[in-house]
Amino acid sequence: MVVPKDVTCRADVEHLRNQALKEYGHVDVWINNAGRGITKSVLDLTDQDVDEITSVVLRSVLYGMQAIIPHFQERGRGHLINVSSLLGRVPIMSHRSI
Question: Can you give the pLDDT at residue 35?
Answer without folding.
Answer: 82
